[in-house]
Design brief:
alpha/beta, TIM Barrel, 18 strands, 12 helices, binds N-(aminocarbonyl)-beta-alanine, binds zinc ion, nine-stranded mixed sheet
Length: about 500
């Protein structure tokens, strides 16, 4: 029997479908044995009383990314990945953002150059597409997919990022043809602009009015439209950061009808609400994100949709802008809500919040937690050949959780490059105390052991929807449209 590099003994192991007592053997960065009497090892970690879980995969975060208004996030690939690792993650999928006029190859070169020397954990990118020219659709997108970037995000709002319905169809059709997933920021741009103008004209400029300016219907209308477009050509989409029950219901119904629609929500819609935006001295700006925080009733509804499986993905949407002139207040000390940088930090707190409020309070099972932490995104985003479960042959990416650890969340204890956390003062039970990336311990005793650049780019698989139901619209179906072949 070969000598192992690392053995984790006496722990309770959980995957998304099973929980069992077992030892785990690791060799050359890979899980090679699960069971008892698995042989000698260079190093042994005793995980008695601890939970041995797959490392988290954070699949929606903005790191070292310029926003469409030109503001750089406060985290680069070092601080962002370190903060993710301390929060129990071993892989991140941030965005590589195309701004209009940019070539996708240049965009990817830029983000590879940012991530490679700095990330302490493994990473991939989703590509943001804001300029879907013919060349982008016909040549650049297929190249990008070939390079292992198999998901794109498109925006139905933000004047400098928005794509129209026809452009969305082109992007979705290219994604279908080449095996990629389209992620959608679904909000109706016209409703947001119309409401914002009315509010500003009426001198309602404080941060709390940001919530009013993004009506719930703006979200549900856009989700409905995105679902209609994607089901027309029968291609998978994922609606990101859903904040309303109305939006979630459209996703649930589309899934019930057999369309390939996935849904994501985020901690801010479960743990925060719009009253947080009504704080003195512009502090409400710290809570401005899009879609905005909703009311307390919505929090409960979003929880329910997470419990019942309407949302398969739970991500932080970490979009870190400091409470100063480099971030939230880049347009002055008292900007109208329309000029406050949008986004909340949360890459380190995503999993501890869900573990504490979900697993410890018995709202979700430990296995459901694992599904939301890692397994579901590994499957949806084409990473499951490497990551997302504790299985022989997969990367030894493991987080050892102490379910009894008690912590109070404080900005000063977190490892991002932020000057606040929206979760300040919240008490949590359970924390990932040891984090292992491809067999190397990277967090232990509250210390980082990994070096800059230890993370590797992960080439993701093409998105394969074999086995998922779906049906092309009859107008596109050769057998039902008088034998016409529509080329898309
Ligand atoms: O307010 C947010 N969510 N900012 C980040 C950008 C995005 O749309 O996800
Ligand atoms: Zn978004
Ligand atoms: Zn985002």
């Amino acid at each position: 029997m070969q000598k192992l590099d690392l053995k984790i003994i006496n722990g309770t192991v959980a995957n998304s479908t099973e929980t069992f007592r077992s030892d785990i053997g690791i060799k050359d960065g890979v899980i090679v044995a699960i069971g008892k009497e698995i042989g000698d090892s260079e190093r042994i970690i005793d995980a008695k009383g601890q939970l041995v879980l797959p490392g988290g995969i954070e699949a929606h975060c903005h790191i070292e990314q310029e926003s469409s208004s030109g503001i750089m996030t406060s985290d680069d690939y070092y601080s962002g990945s370190v903060s993710a690792a301390f929060g129990g993650n071993t892989c991140i999928i941030p965005f590589a953002a195309q701004h209009r006029g940019q070539n996708l190859h240049d965009v990817l070169d830029l983000y590879h150059g940012r991530a490679e020397p700095k990330s302490v954990i493994d990473y991939s990118f989703h590509l943001i597409i804001s300029d879907p020219t013919e060349n982008v659709i016909k040549n650049e997108l297929p190249d990008v997919i070939e390079q292992g970037i198999t998901s794109f995000k498109v925006y139905m709002t933000y004047d400098k990022l928005i794509v129209n319905d026809e452009q969305m169809l082109e992007i979705m059709a290219a994604a279908k043809k080449h095996g990629a997933l389209t992620m959608i920021h679904a909000e109706n741009n016209a409703m947001i602009n119309w409401m914002s103008e009315k509010l500003i004209k009426g001198d309602h400029k404080e941060p709390k009015f940001h919530a009013l300016s993004h009506p719930r219907t703006a979200e549900s209308e856009a989700i409905n439209r995105a679902v209609a477009l994607s089901s027309f050509i029968d291609t998978p989409i994922l609606i990101v950061h859903v904040s309303t029950e109305a939006g979630a219901r459209i996703i649930a119904e589309a899934r019930y009808d057999g369309h390939k629609v996935f849904g994501e929500t985020c901690p801010q819609y479960m743990f925060l609400n719009s009253s947080d935006m009504d704080l003195p001295e512009m502090q409400g700006a710290q809570f401005c994100c899009s879609p905005p925080l909703r009311d307390r009733a919505s929090q409960e509804e979003i929880w329910r949709c997470l419990q019942n499986g309407t949302f398969q993905v739970y991500s932080s949407d970490h979009a870190p802008y400091r409470f100063d002139e480099t971030g939230k207040l880049h347009a002055g000390k008292k900007p109208p809500f329309t000029k406050i940088a949008n986004g909340l930090p949360g890459i380190e707190t995503r999993l501890p919040l869900l573990f504490s409020e979900g697993v410890m309070k018995k709202r979700i099972s430990l296995n459901h937690f694992v599904a939301l932490a890692a397994t579901n995104v590994s499957k949806i985003y084409g990473l499951d050949h490497r990551k997302g479960s504790i299985t022989e042959g997969k990367d030894a990416d493991i987080a050892i959780w102490n379910p009894e650890a008690k912590r109070v969340i404080k900005a000063e204890d977190l490892h991002d490059n932020m000057d606040f956390t929206p979760y300040e003062g919240m008490e949590v039970r359970g924390w990932p105390e040891i984090v292992i990336q491809r067999g190397e311990v990277i967090i232990e005793d509250n210390k980082l052991i990994a070096e800059r650049g230890d993370g590797e780019f992960i080439h993701r698989k093409r998105i394969d929807c074999t086995g998922m139901p779906g049906r092309l619209a009859p107008e596109l179906d050769h057998n039902k449209n008088f034998g016409v072949d529509i080329d898309f």
